[in-house]
Amino acid sequence: VDRWKHAEIARISQLHSKGPKIAEFTLLLDKEVELLRCIEAYRVKVKEDSRKIKEKQFLEEISKPVAWYGRDGKLITMDTVEIQKARKLKELYNSFIRDDVEVKERIELLVNMKFALQEFRHPLAEETITLLDRECDLLVRRCDDQQLEFLRRRVAACVLQLIKTSELNSGVTKRKEVRDYRKIENSRLQFCEMCHQVKINTDFPLNAKMSGFTVCTSCSWKDVSERCWIDMTPYKFILRAVQRDERKRKCWGSLAFVLQEKDIFFIVEKLWHSHSAISECTEMTELRLCRWRVNEDWSPWNCFLVTVQEMKAHCKLEDPEAVYDEELVQKVLNKHKLAKANFEQLLAVNKRFTESGDWAGIRAPAIVRANAVDRI
After folding, report:
1. Biological process GO terms, please (predicted)?
2. How far, in Å, CA of 217 to CA of 365, rounded?
3. Using one digit for the tens of pLDDT, what is the confidence trace for 72-115?
């Protein structure tokens, strides 16, 4: 939307002036608002679908029978009392969220649920009973489904929370809580500086420049949504071009397969300032990150930002330092020093793997999978 808006602003500025220009800008603003509204509606819908999928997965997990393999290798399953109760609660919740239930059946379901919850002395149970009475009263008054939609959502949310609350669910989530605890116990826990929560390391985004976990994935998404948007398409294309070239050279241990679009953005934008080192070309579609020393694996400290034609000529050079002038060579070497300083963690990992010989174990399975690599 941002790219489209800037393109439209440039087009309107060239074609119109004064009154017509203001009118076109007004129409453009209306279109932008409509597009943003549609995007937000789609985002809300995706979020709602994701929530429903998570609820379904939760109910499936707590009602899953205990399974293990016997001595003869056969799979053995067992339904405990808690699992049977969980299955009943799952059926109860599924009946709650159904829209094709008759009014009499719905009232009967609500009354049965109300009597089942009266034995618990819990604020959540009391709130759910109040909501059930309210829905029964509205159903008796013949309110239609649209008027009851939000109330039913609230009732369904309370019922799901009842199932999740260990004090009210007769221990049906005990096995899941134990599994989750073991998962956390066996994982490395990290602290998110933005939401101030302790999460497992898989909930944090990774990139080649980071030296530790600071912000989790959900908070990083919020941070990105508040920052200025950057189009990563050109940098993704440059990264894929580098990876394609490394595959052709059969350099399966190259660091090009470790880096992400953000890392290429940093290399191109911050280190090489988005222009060719030879011709100063700034057209992103023409720029490529090739090897500086052709006989060595590609890395942030062995790359050279040039155009496509310049790359073809450069790849024929065995010793670029003997061909280019001293000023250009010194500039490239300075860029490589900056890359080593910024990718210090990646440099240490690469050094450790190279000295220990572990890269050979990584290259071997990569060569076997060479035919399975998707073409870019």
Report:
1. cilium assembly; flagellated sperm motility
2. 30
3. 888 888 888 878 888 887 887 888 888 777 888 888 888 888 88
Per-residue burial over 315-335, b if 16 or more Cβ lie within 10 Å, else e, is eeeeebeeebeeeeeeebeeb
CB 83 within 8 A of CB 91: no
Q: Compute CA 261 distance to the chain's CA centroid, rounded to the nearest angstrom.
A: 14
Residue range 354-369: mean pLDDT, rounded: 50
Number of other CB atoms surrounding residue 371 within 10 Å = 6
| Average confidence (pLDDT) over 262-286 | 89
List all residues 6 or more positions away from 342 whose beta carbon is below 8 Å from its beta carbon. 209, 266, 270, 271, 300
Residue found by looking up tokens 């890359």 in the block: 339
Pairing type for strands 303-307 and 287-291 reads antiparallel
> Which pLDDT value is given to residue 357?
58
Please say whether the dihedral angle defined by the alpha carbons of residues 155, 161, 167 and 173, taken in this order, is positive or negative: positive
Closest CA to 58 of 182, 165, 151, 197: 165
Which tens digits make up the pLDDT trace of 127-160? 888 888 888 888 888 888 788 888 888 888 888 8
Q: How far apart are CA 201 and CA 286, in angstroms?
A: 38
Retrieve residue 192's tokens. Answer: 């998110």
For the chain, which residues make up each domain, given as ranges?
A: 1-63, 76-175, 183-226, 232-356
Its sign, for the CA torsion 307, 312, 317, 323, is negative
CA distance 299 to 342: 13
54-64: pLDDT as tens digits: 888 888 888 88
Q: Whose structure tokens read 């002395």?
A: 121
Residues paired with 77 in a beta bridge: 67
Q: Which of these, 327, 329, 273, lies nearest to 305 by C-alpha position? A: 273
Name 111's Cβ contacts closer than 8 Å, sequence gap at least 6. Answer: 132, 136
What average pLDDT does the chain have? 80
What pairs with residue 69 in β-bridges? 75
Amino acid found at 203:
D
The token duo for 34 is 């409509």
Q: Tell me the residue ranges of DSSP E strands in the chain.
A: 66-69, 75-78, 189-191, 198-200, 287-291, 303-307
Q: State phi, psi for 197 to the nearest 5 degrees.
A: -120, 150
